[in-house]
Amino acid sequence: MHNSNRDSSGRTRPLRVATVFGTRPEAIKMAPVVTELKKYPDEFETVVVVTAQHRQMLDQVLELFRIKPDHDLNIMQERQTLFDITIRALQGLGEVFARIQPDLVLVHGDTTTTFAGSLAAYYLQVPVGHVEAGLRTFNKYSPYPEEMNRHLTGVLTDFHFAPTETASHNLRNEGVSGERIWVTGNTVIDALLATVRPDYRLPAGMLQRPLDPQERVLVVTTHRRENLGERLREVYLALHDLLAEFPDTRLVFPVHKNPRVREVVEPVLGPNSPFAGRIDLIEPLEYEPFANVMNQATLVLTDSGGLQEEAPALGKPVLVLRDTTERPEAVAAGTVKLVGTGRREIFAAARELLADPVAYEAMARAANPYGDGRAAGRVVQALRLHYGLSREPFVPFQPEGRNP
């Protein structure tokens, strides 16, 4: 399918851009792009397509950013496998694209929806733009299946919106022409800065008691498939040790809905823990309260990818509970530390930050290499330039300075 942005009478019409996402992290990071595209209604017709690979958590973000999907595949099923998600997303997106005939499909990041969306677009010969392109660990099973999702999407992509120069370098090493790569910063920082407020109050009853300014708050998230089982148990034992070592610490842990996460966390950090009064095991939070909880954190421990970018923007050190990271810029900048999933290693790294103010400040004040809140503007400016809609030069993102 070769698209033209002319209607049947030969008049130029706005370019029809399908933005595709299916999970909460994708929605958070694509929301600023959708908002930015809609600032140019004479140039872009923005069509929002969601797979709802994650239903409830996706809906929370759509409501927060006031985005109403034009097409909702609603593919989520209980205990769905990667085969299920891939088949339903590919078939559903193919049918939608064939019907709406987009001029461009924008996908984000590294989910199964990302790969299925880019493959469906390719089958219909529609150009693909990849937001957050070029992230790599060079280990196809870590993170799994995300590393291969982004590799495969990269092969199908026409417009590579790399968040950092490192990501751009990865793409060039894979043979992508520099003319097809734009360094934009990461749109997650756009979303975060628009969401965090100093006067924000957490919803009543969310925590067993309000956060105390005298407490040091550890915010934890875990969900990676490769960490399920004994690796997660080691992580939770390390958290138990930290609570024992530091009586002024409080643990806020939005627990992923995956039963294989919950069945491991409960025996170690559940109601029978001797530190239960300082542990909040809560349901996954909507993005707005989570971003604002993170803003009150002392330290973030996570196996997530996105939090490696978000927390440093708020001046929060991050300990990454993984063996690899596709975000080496954060390690180099000193905003995150890769600690793996070993009980001793996690405890030692966290203890240093909690016991040594100099070590803590060094991480908290390091410059965030991921964005300045203007990434979505760069994505759209690159498209406007490519399609001859603007002559304003593209200025790549470059990290500057330090966190205040």
Question: In summary, what is this structure?
Answer:
By secondary structure, the protein is an alpha/beta fold.
C-alpha Rg, in Å?
21 Å
What form results from the Cα inertia axes? globular
Q: In which order are the strands of the major sheet placed? A: 3-2-1-4-5-6-7
Distance between the termini: 50 Å
Mean pLDDT: 93
- Beta-strand residue percentage: 5-15%
Main sheet, how many strands, which sense, barrel? 7 strands, parallel
Please state the structural category: alpha/beta
Please report the first level of CATH classification, the CATH class of the largest domain. Alpha Beta
CATH architecture of the largest domain: 3-Layer(aba) Sandwich
Relative helix content: 40-55%
CATH fold name of the largest domain, please?
A: Rossmann fold
Number of strands: 13
Q: Which residue ranges are poorly predicted, with pLDDT under 50 across at least 5 consecutive positions?
A: none
- Our count of domains comes out at 2
Helix run count: 15
CATH homologous superfamily placement of the largest domain: Glycogen Phosphorylase B
What is the ordering of alpha helices and beta strands?
EHEHEHEHEHEHEHEHEHEHEHEHEHHH
SSE order and pairing:
Layout lengths: L14 E7 L2 H14 L6 E7 L4 H10 L6 E2 L9 H19 L3 E5 L3 H12 L4 E4 L14 H11 L2 E4 L2 H9 L7 E3 L3 H9 L20 E6 L8 H16 L3 E6 L4 H11 L9 E4 L4 H9 L3 E4 L4 H7 L4 E3 L7 H6 L2 E3 L4 H13 L1 H8 L10 H12 L18
Parallel strand pairs: 1-2, 1-4, 2-3, 4-5, 5-6, 6-7, 8-9, 8-11, 9-10, 11-12, 12-13
Helix pairs in contact: 1-2, 1-7, 1-15, 3-4, 4-5, 8-9, 8-13, 13-14
